[in-house]
Specification:
Blueprint (H helix, E strand, L loop, with lengths): L3 H36 E2 L2 E2 L1 H10 L4 E3 L2 E2 H7 L5 H4 L1 E8 L2 H7 L6 H16 L5 H12 L6 H4 L15 H27 L8 E4 L5 E7 L4 H9 L4 E6 L2 H21 L6 H17 L5 H6 L4 H10 L4 H5 L7 E3 L3 H8 L2 H6 L4 E5 L4 E3 L2 E10 L8 E2 L3 E8 L5 E7 L1 H12 L6 E5 L2 E4 L12 E3 L5 H12 L7 E9 L1 H30 L1 H23 L6 H30 L4 H33 L3 H34 L27 H21 L7 H4 L1 E7 L6 H11 L5 E5 L5 E6 L8 H14 L9 E8 L1 H30 L2 H27 L8 H31 L5 H11 L1 H21 L5 H40 L20
Antiparallel strand pairs: 1-2, 3-4, 5-7, 5-19, 6-7, 8-12, 8-13, 8-16, 9-12, 10-12, 11-12, 14-15, 15-18, 16-17, 19-23, 20-22, 20-23, 21-22
Helix pairs in contact: 1-2, 1-3, 1-21, 1-24, 6-7, 9-19, 11-14, 20-21, 20-22, 20-33, 21-22, 21-24, 22-23, 22-24, 22-33, 23-24, 23-29, 23-31, 24-31, 25-30, 27-28, 29-30, 29-31, 30-31, 30-34, 31-32, 31-34, 32-34, 33-34
């Protein structure tokens, strides 16, 4: 094998990296186990105590220099469907932004255009709202320019005047909408931290105004909805001087010291453990100046003396370690928060004093600190100024060449701002966003006219962030939940068990099969298989990707499919051994001849993974990531690592030679001579009949059984304490949902039902969510004795459902197009590409047709996003099989140029038949295990895969290659006959060409 040293080095490096990152997962699990042990008393887990322990070590080193926070960022996490929690997709609504930029115009044409644009977006979700608004304005305005609406004082800073073109106005609106999305992203990122969950995730969805948020482990969905959809709150407050606040902090420290002294030493084990954790944090923070020393620099002499004598060794003195300022080390913020919420703090600190955290940490000597700003609140809690007075804020470069932020206010705000700054010359004024201080500049002079320059030691990105934060209160950018899923922890635990059992069972079946069929070589394939699984998990951990149920499905599918590479190689080696080659030469030739087919099949699978990853969301994207990583690791493990092991075993075990067959497989599939293409017309009729039957049944059943993903609506999993009849529950729910679309079915257990309804599907508001849930509760009242509980709920708005349908069709189309182009590039004849695409489209139609046919027999599954992932996975599986056959045909034609396509097609199909059936068997067994043990969440996926694998294998043999014969092979044969060539080997005459004499 060439470049053996490079391959060994690459394998060692990749293995070391995977082991390194997987060890972070091991460390994290250890910390979590310690937290559980710490919080468990008398067999009961105190969740608050467990979270307190994790907070105390959040920024403390737990693995060398790595803090628990850094360890969690690098571990292999679990998705919401395995752990429980909440997934939310928010959409930033541009309607209110447009209204605000118009000065809340009452123009009839303007308001009519807004309404039409809103309606149009429900069916044209791929078109930007501003484009739809511009189209509607053209229809309703009678040729009047948009500048007549938007040329106002609000937009003066955007250079919009009465002469501005419609394109310029729409461009300004687009820019403001984009900035609003950025502001929402930054605000929500800050709010997400308030939920106290581990590994929260927030990200923008490319090309849309949507934000996806995942909060593992949250137990209060209503609070999440309220905080995520609330309007940003920007306020301006005066700030206490440090010498004013010092006496209160000194007094608080004294009270805390007195309380600590009164407690008995070692009263509880928990107290001792907490002290050790805090002591470790202080040691890591270093020996900084005490609270007294910090305050003495800015306080009166008597206050400094009082502090020096009273706080020596106090709790606050040990926490206020930020040099020169009132701040604490980031890892001590949880402890400080608990102090500020304590009864002692409430008793000592005046009601007008609010200690608020700065929005961003400050790094000093490689330590991160968060400053506390002592804000002076009014007794009624109403600020003198709030965010709506800001007309504009932007980053700029000042006269000195330093970055600055320019802020402009409305006339009314300018008057209040002049009064506020005039009263606070030489003092700080805090700009507070959602109770976090984004800036607290010192007022240099009274500011009149509303134009303000904020300067400081800013980086350019700091000024951009601050400008966005100040604009957060200027224009409303409300967000609405367009997709939501809540998974209870009990369902998550159940899903973990189901996924684990199905994974282990599938892996075990494959390993046993390979060992029984290929002997020693099969055991090598098993080693490569385990190594491949290790690599996949390690790479997932490196990229911080959470493992979900669809991810597990992708993992099992990749593992099963990766066996195909070893099957291809081993079957080739067996052929060469049958031709009389020695073991070492047969291995070399087998690997060499199998490489092109393996490469082509991996490229087509990777193409599907890339398309799914780019266009898919949520579970589909996780499936795609796992699939894509698996393609790369499978290539390394099956093609290179297995060869290294086999060559080593051949050289080191002359007395026990490597075997590639057993008594079971030695004569299996030998000397096959099926006239496969001769049955193609029967196959054409059969496929057409099944497809027509399926679509006729679908029409009679009222259309496809689309899931919430595709049609919008809400779904709830309801648990009862006894077995329930789905039809009885549906009869009670139907009136409550006012005749809207309703489906109730068993969901994995006799006492668990899944309720799906289209009631108020077009209304994505929180009010509608509550109304639908109230209707559900009303309908379940008759079954109160069965104690109905709702551990899981999901919602998909009509707009996002349209997007999912659009991207699903686009994904399928792009996949078929990509495969057409690649096959044309590799095999150089358009008939190969056309036949492959027709066969793959045939597979997709047969899978779709199978759903209504199964429904007619009482087996009812929904078509959702996971269904789309399964169909594309089937296309990949089927294409792998087809490419192997194509590759063998190409090989036969190259080695025997005088033979025609019609002469080699049956021998090629027969020679690859063993590989086709072995791969089919391994993958089929795995998805069958998923269907049995994978749980209801994966039932639809598994059913789709079972049907798809059966028909995908069938189409590779009876559809794809026969179509080439009908479109190209017959034409070639006629041309050769016309040229006077002797063409005697027709499809039914396969014995004239066998694998042995090629």
């Amino acid at each position: 094998m060439r470049n053996k040293g490079l391959i060994i080095a690459l394998t060692v490096v990749v293995t070391a990296l995977c082991a390194y990152f997987l060890f972070f997962t091991y460390v994290s699990r250890g910390v979590q186990q310690k937290a559980v042990a710490y919080a468990t008393r008398d067999g009961k887990l105190n969740e608050t105590a467990r979270q307190h322990y994790l907070d105390s070590v959040w920024r403390a080193p737990v693995f060398g220099p790595f803090t628990y926070r850094e360890v969690r960022q690098s571990e292999l996490g679990l998705g919401l469907d395995l752990k429980g929690g909440m997934h939310v997709t928010l959409e930033v609504s541009p309607v209110e932004i447009v209204r605000a930029m118009s000065g809340n115009s009452k123009d009839a044409a303007f308001n009519k255009s807004l309404e039409q644009a809103q309606q149009a977006q429900k069916t044209n979700s791929g078109t930007p709202f501003t484009a739809l608004f511009a189209q509607a304005w053209q229809q309703n305005s009678g040729g009047k320019p948009l500048a007549t609406i938007f040329a106002n004082t609000t937009n003066k800073s955007r250079n919009i005047d009465i002469n501005s073109s419609n394109e310029k106005v729409i461009g300004a609106i687009d820019k403001e909408v984009e900035e609003a999305i950025d502001r929402s992203f930054n605000i929500l990122r800050t709010r997400v931290d308030k939920f106290g969950v581990n590994q929260p995730s927030i990200q923008r969805v490319k090309g849309t105004g949507r934000l996806q948020i995942e909060l593992p482990g949250v137990d209060n969905p209503d609070r999440v909805r309220k905080l995520l959809q609330g309007q940003a709150k920007l306020e301006f407050w005066e700030v206490w001087n440090q010498n004013e606040v010092a006496p209160y902090l000194v007094q608080l420290d004294q009270q805390l010291a007195t309380k600590a002294a009164a407690q008995k030493a070692g009263a509880t084990t928990a107290a001792a453990d907490t002290s050790k954790a805090l002591a470790g944090n202080k040691a890591a923070a270093g020996d900084s100046s005490s609270l007294a020393a910090q305050l003495a620099k800015k306080s009166a002499k008597n206050a400094a003396d009082s502090a020096a004598t009273s706080t020596k060794g106090g709790v606050l003195a040990s926490l206020f370690t930020m040099p020169g300022r009132l701040g604490v080390n980031l890892r001590d913020t949880a402890r400080m928060n608990s102090i500020l919420r304590s009864p002692e703090a409430k008793a000592v600190l005046p009601p007008t004093l609010a200690l608020l955290w700065s929005l961003k940490p400050t790094t000093i000597d490689k330590q991160e600190y968060l400053e506390l700003i002592p804000v002076r609140k009014t007794r009624d809690g109403v600020p003198m100024l709030s965010g709506e007075v800001i007309s504009d804020a932007r980053a700029d470069i000042g006269a000195t060449g330093q970055p600055e932020v320019l802020m402009n206010m409305s006339p009314a705000g300018s008057r209040k701002w002049a009064k506020m700054t005039g009263a606070n010359i030489g003092r700080q004024v805090a700009m507070v966003l959602d109770d976090y201080v984004c800036s607290a500049p010192v007022v240099q002079s009274e500011i009149t006219g509303g134009g303000t320059s904020i300067t400081g030691s800013f980086a350019i990105e700091d000024t951009q962030d601050l400008a966005n934060q100040l604009k957060a209160g200027k224009l409303p950018a409300p967000t609405r939940i367009v997709e939501e899923a809540v998974v209870g922890p009990s369902l998550g635990k159940e899903a973990i068990n189901q996924g684990l059992y199905s994974s282990l069972a599938g892996l075990l079946i494959i390993m046993i099969f390979m060992a029984l069929y290929y002997g020693r070589a099969g055991i090598v394939a098993d080693v490569a298989l385990l190594f491949n699984m290790f690599l996949i998990l390690g790479v997932l951990a490196q990229f911080g990707t959470a493992l979900t149920l669809p991810g597990i499905a992708g993992l099992i599918l990749v593992i099963a499919s990766s066996v195909d590479a070893n099957v291809l190689i081993f079957e080739r080696v067996r052929e060469e051994l049958n031709h009389g080659l020695g073991l070492s030469d047969a291995v070399n030739k087998g690997y060499s001849r199998a490489f092109s087919a393996i490469f082509d099949s991996n490229v087509t699978t990777m193409l599907i993974a890339v398309i799914l990853g780019f266009f898919g969301t949520g579970p589909v994207q996780n499936f795609a990531i796992t699939l894509g990583i698996g393609v790369l690791t499978s290539f390394l493990s099956a093609v290179f690592v297995s060869r290294l092991i086999i060559e080593w075993l051949i050289k080191g075990n002359e007395n026990h030679p490597m075997t590639f067959s057993t008594m079971i497989s030695r004569n299996l599939f030998k000397n096959l001579n099926f006239d496969i293409v001769g049955k193609r017309k029967i196959a054409y009729i059969f496929s057409a009949s099944v497809i027509i039957l399926g679509f006729v049944l679908m029409y009679l059943q009222g259309g496809p059984n689309l899931g919430v993903d595709f049609q919008g609506g809400r779904a709830y999993v309801v648990d009862f304490n006894k077995t329930m009849v789905a039809s009885d529950v549906a009869d009670q729910l139907r009136p409550a949902f006012k005749g809207a679309g309703l489906e109730v079915k068993q969901y994995g257990a006799p006492n668990r039902l899944r309720v799906t309804t289209g009631y108020l599907a077009d209304d994505e508001s929180v009010t509608a969510d509550k109304q639908v849930r109230a209707a559900l509760d009303q309908g379940l009242q008759k079954f109160a004795s069965a104690s109905p509980q709702v551990p899981s709920a999901s919602k998909v708005g009509a707009t996002i459902a349209d997007d999912i349908k659009r991207t699903s069709v686009l994904s399928l189309g792009l996949t078929l197009l990509g495969i057409f182009v690649y096959v044309l590039f590799r095999f150089e004849k358009w008939q190969y590409s056309m036949a492959a695409v027709i066969a793959l489209f045939h597979d997709a139609l047969l899978v779709i047709a199978a759903f209504p046919i199964a429904r007619a027999f009482g087996v009812n599954y929904e078509m959702d996003q996971i269904f789309v992932a399964a169909v594309l996975a089937i296309i990949g599986f089927s294409m792998n099989d087809t490419v192997v056959i194509y590759d063998r045909i190409r090989e036969y034609l190259r080695e025997n140029p005088k033979l025609t396509f019609a002469q080699v097609v049956n021998p090629a199909l027969n020679s690859t038949f063993s590989r086709t059936m072995i791969t089919f068997t391994t993958v089929f067994l795995v998805v069958l295990v998923l269907y049995i043990f994978g749980g209801e969440t994966l039932r639809s996926f598994s059913f789709t895969m079972i049907v798809g694998i059966i028909f995908g294998t069938y189409s590779s043999l009876f559809i794809a290659t026969p179509i080439i014969l009908d479109t190209y092979g017959k034409k070639e044969e006629r041309e050769r006959l016309a040229a006077g060539e002797d063409v005697t080997g027709l499809p039914g005459d396969a014995p004239k060409l066998s694998t042995a004499n090629v």
